[in-house]
Amino acid sequence: MLSRRLWHSMPVNASRPLIYQGTKRVIASNNISTTDRFSPLAPAYAQNTIIQAPLIAAYSTVASSKTLTLSEQLAQGSRYALAKSITLVESSRSDHRAEAQQLLSYILKKQRDQPLTKPTFRIGLSGSPGVGKSTFIEAFGMYLLEQGHKVAVLAVDPSSSRTGGSILGDKTRMTELSRADDAYVRPSPSRGTLGGVARNTNEAILLCEAAGYDVTLVETVGVGQSETMVAEMVDMFVLLVGPGGGDELQGLKKGIVELSDLVIVNKADGKLADAARAVSMDYTSAIKFLQPPSPLWKTKVLRVSSRENTGIDKAWEAMKSYFDTMTSANKLTEKRGAQRKVWMWRQITSELVDRLNSDDKVKQHVAELESKVFDGKMTSGQAADSVVDVFLNKVKEDRI
Ligand SMILES: Nc1nc2c(ncn2[C@@H]2O[C@H](COP(=O)(O)OP(=O)(O)OP(=O)(O)O)[C@@H](O)[C@H]2O)c(=O)[nH]1
């Protein structure tokens, strides 16, 4: 029995069934009548509905006419539809989230039946503020367009989730690329936790690919957890450094260098050319002592000037070489599968924590336990067990 409360406590992104009032029909996605009237979930209906596992699975492929239209527009490469779809996945409104999940399920089903014709490549790009990320993406993106690719640029901005402001999104960035027909540049969402933003970005990548963008760049700024999160959603992780830099090398950020499949020393031009050469040699020797992210690939170090457009082609060659090496060993499919599992667990963890925090009874219990833990009257482990027990009992009670 799935009670109304339990339904509400289920994550909207997982297999929470979509339940409709009005004309109810479970239909295969390849046989959908666009005249079906679906209106989003009716809690009153859900309250008395027994939903069994096979039905849940069937519901996940149900698509409303609105979803179908959006997905058709996406398949035709409409930037408007892409923007609208990403807005849906970023929205916290439950009806939007339901629509977004319907759209994503439909897209996944479609891609299982009919895989994308072009291979897709997801590239993460990180670097400290001012290192030249926008300038590089602008130059690199324009180069990719010349090579016949369609390029999407997404951003995971740790500052926006903490402060509501944004390091990456405030100024007009990548103006030429933003205007190009075959490019789509999405500013970072300005709300939500970093985990939430990252999760939305994962879904946005799928949407970009469904809209025919075969190269997706996910940009982040080198702060906190954001690089690790981005590295866990892309095929290849690229670190952009400046000629004066060295923070990363000095051990402050050794972790990020270890995550990197390619290090690009930007601003290798004019007076900065010699410094860029020296930094690039430093990285090349330092990397020899680090664990490579994959045993099949040795992290490369290259110099570019985004301003003067030099070395951009070499950077792309290195990326393609990585892509070819990994795909021919079937490692990218494996990597993407493993990443999906990582994200599933991240989301389970964050959903459970959200729900623990939103339940009044549990919240009160947590407050009491926190003070006991603080005073040393209870161990952290005992308190954690107790919170989980109270929460599970609460779920059980709600079910009855
Ligand atoms: N000389 C030189 N300057 C560059 C190059 N690339 C970027 N710059 C300059 O570096 C400064 C910062 O560039 P951005 O592209 O805004 O850097 P960013 O990393 O995107 O900066 P944030 O958005 O603040 O994170 C600007 O003044 C650029 O003109 C380059 O290849 N050579």
UniProtKB/TrEMBL annotation:
Q: Does the keyword Ribonucleoprotein apply?
A: no
Which InterPro entries does this UniProt record tie to the protein? GTPase_ArgK (IPR005129), P-loop_NTPase (IPR027417)
Pfam family membership, one: MeaB
- Catalytic activity as recorded in UniProt: GTP + H2O = GDP + phosphate + H(+)
- Gene3D superfamilies in UniProt: 1.10.287.130, 1.20.5.170, P-loop containing nucleotide triphosphate hydrolases
Cite a GO CC annotation.
cytoplasm
Q: Membrane-spanning regions, if any? A: none
Q: Which residues form the signal peptide?
A: none
Name any one GO molecular function.
Answer: GTP binding
Top-level lineage group: Eukaryota
Q: Which controlled-vocabulary keywords does the entry list?
A: GTP-binding, Hydrolase, Nucleotide-binding
Is tRNA-binding among the key words of this record?
no
What quaternary arrangement does the UniProt entry report?
Homodimer. Interacts with MMUT (the apoenzyme form); the interaction is GTP dependent.
Family listed: Belongs to the SIMIBI class G3E GTPase family. ArgK/MeaB subfamily.
- Function according to Swiss-Prot or TrEMBL: GTPase, binds and hydrolyzes GTP. Involved in intracellular vitamin B12 metabolism, mediates the transport of cobalamin (Cbl) into mitochondria for the final steps of adenosylcobalamin (AdoCbl) synthesis. Functions as a G-protein chaperone that assists AdoCbl cofactor delivery from MMAB to the methylmalonyl-CoA mutase (MMUT). Plays a dual role as both a protectase and a reactivase for MMUT. Protects MMUT from progressive inactivation by oxidation by decreasing the rate of the formation of the oxidized inactive cofactor hydroxocobalamin (OH2Cbl).
> What is the protein name stated in its UniProt record?
Uncharacterized protein
- According to its UniProt entry, this protein's organism is Umbelopsis ramanniana AG
Source taxonomy: Eukaryota, Fungi, Fungi incertae sedis, Mucoromycota, Mucoromycotina
